[in-house]
Design a protein that fits this description.
Layout lengths: L10 H20 L6 E6 L2 E7 L2 H4 L6 H13 L7 E7 L3 H9 L4 E6 L24 E3 L4 H19 L10 E2 L17 E3 L10 E6 L5 E6 L18 E6 L9 E2 L7 H15 L4 E5 L4 H10 L4 E6 L8 H5 L9 H6 L10 H14 L6
Helix pairs in contact: 1-5, 6-7
């Protein structure tokens, strides 16, 4: 059966629907997905929306167009979408084009062309295949610049993060751009990185190491939803060597995309290997309240390593922007989803930090005279 082509609507209507598809694309970007959005329209009315969700759903077919078609079929109670138009921000691939033809769409409108996988004329043109029994009108280039800009900005952020250092970035992880941390006050300490520990499996962990090697040594442990910034007033104080790792998934460390990569037991194993690498034999463990469970696991695994353990006080300052800095969008937040929400703590104040120094030195037998 061949469906007759519908007349081309007013270009202003096309721009209106494409703007809605762009809104879906931006939501996809916020979730860490490639920003492609789609809307399904019939008789001038919105039927369904869709955006890319392959990462979130672990589904290679969860493209924006497929999600919109599925939602539209459910809304209309029919897998054949006769008379419907689909607006999508990027030229559809072969998979999506095939689904559009099977659904009997009257018209497909896309924004930016895709020279790598586009199946509406760029790489191949399934819609022009004469042996297929359905004809769908295709129009490209609607709000093309706006659609391209969203994609380009997304991939530029990813490239900037990957180029931040020479260390390779695994395909299943993200790396927060250093620019995200530049505006933070009081945490401009020299960064250190380790990537070759067996337990890290190629992910890169950031840590701060400040103070003389012969000073009382303090391992500062943040909890889920926090990062090393929690200890900003403690790092660099006289009489103390402070080691402050950012757990994988937090702070300046790499962010594995899958929630299953994050567990407290695995973080404990990484920390033990890292302590051996930096040559720490005996330390005082200073941890946030949120890190209490991990601190217990760490001490149980290596009881001889820790001369003392204490919970760092919390000054209850307002530093929400600092906690958000490592997470540009939801794609970076797998560790938060796996282990706990964004922190509401702030770490010790300068006065409280000076008290912690005295406590650590006393516990490790150093004179405070």
């Amino acid at each position: 059966m061949t469906t007759e082509a519908t007349p081309l609507p007013d270009v202003h209507d096309d721009a209106h629907w494409m703007a809605l598809a762009l809104a879906e694309a931006r939501l996809a970007a916020e979730a860490g997905e490639v920003p492609v959005g789609a809307v399904l329209v019939k008789d001038g009315r919105l039927v369904a929306t869709g955006r890319n969700t392959p990462v979130a759903q672990n589904d290679p077919s969860a493209h924006a167009e497929i999600n919109a078609l599925r939602a539209g079929a459910l809304a209309l109670g029919n897998y054949r979408l006769d008379g419907c138009e689909l607006f999508v921000t990027l030229e559809p691939c072969a998979m999506c084009s095939g689904a559009m033809l099977h659904s009997r769409l009257a018209r497909v409108v896309y924004g930016a062309s895709d020279p790598k996988t586009g199946a509406a004329g760029s790489v191949l043109d399934l819609f022009a295949e004469p042996r297929l029994n359905h004809r769908t009108v295709v129009q490209g280039g609607v709000l093309a610049q706006e659609c391209s800009a969203v994609l380009q900005a997304f991939f530029q952020r990813r490239r900037n993060a990957a180029r931040a250092t020479a260390e390779p970035l695994r395909d299943d992880a993200l790396r927060t751009s250093p620019e995200r941390f530049e505006a933070l006050v009081g945490y401009d300490f020299a960064p250190h990185y380790v990537q070759d520990l067996p337990s890290l499996q190629g992910w890169r962990m950031h840590y701060v190491d400040e103070g003389a090697e012969d000073a009382a040594c303090c391992l500062c442990l943040h909890g889920p939803g926090e990062w090393g910034y929690f200890f900003r007033h403690l790092v660099g104080l006289p009489g103390l060597r402070t080691l402050v790792p950012d757990l994988i998934g937090f702070g300046r460390s790499d962010k594995p995309k899958r929630e299953a990569a994050h567990s407290l037991q695995w973080h404990r194993h990484v920390l033990l290997e890292w302590m051996a690498r930096v040559g720490v034999e005996s330390v005082a463990l200073v941890h946030s309240e949120a890190a209490s469970e991990l601190a217990v696991l760490l001490q149980a695994a290596a009881p001889g390593r820790f001369a003392a353990a204490l919970v760092a006080p919390d000054g209850h300052e307002h530093i929400k922007d600092a906690w958000r800095a490592p997470f540009p969008d939801r794609g970076y937040e797998a560790a938060l989803r796996a282990l706990g929400p964004l922190a509401t703590s702030s770490g010790p104040t300068p006065e409280q930090a000076r008290t912690v120094v005295l406590q650590v030195r006393n516990a490790m037998g150093y004179s405070n005279a």
